[in-house]
Write a structure and sequence with these properties.
By secondary structure, the chain is α+β, with helices and mostly antiparallel strands. α4 runs antiparallel to α5.
């Protein structure tokens, strides 16, 4: 296969780039943090495609989390059923709706946005 053909095939099958935003973990409750840590472990342990799909999309990091919302509505609904707070739902919904952002990274050292709910824990 010629390199031009390979390039064309890559372009046809490439995953589109999606945006990322990094927010402070102060934009979630402590209970949300504990729940996301639990969900991350559950995904790794179970690999239950019926519940989680084929990929991990709640990723626990040393100082926060990454939540992948490429299947936005389905994953927000799953998080709500799992018990995230209305405030965290609002944050995730607000920053991903109509923005092209599909990855929300939470880090304890990131700056706090005054337009989003803030929790001191």
């Amino acid at each position: 296969m010629a390199s031009e053909d390979i390039l064309q095939e890559l372009v046809k099958t490439a995953v589109p780039l999606t945006g990322v935003i990094t927010l402070s973990t102060a934009h979630m409750t402590q209970a949300d943090s504990e729940l996301l840590a639990h969900l991350s472990l559950s995904q790794r342990a179970s690999h239950n495609a019926a519940q989680w799909g084929e990929e991990e999309w709640v990723i626990d990091r040393e100082y926060g989390f990454i939540v992948q919302l490429t299947q936005r509505e389905k994953r927000l609904e799953t998080l709500l059923k799992a018990g995230i707070s209305a405030a965290l739902y609002h944050v995730l919904d607000t920053v991903t709706k109509d923005t092209g952002i599909a990855f929300v990274s939470f880090d304890c050292d990131e700056r706090i946005l005054t337009t989003l709910p803030v929790f001191d824990w």
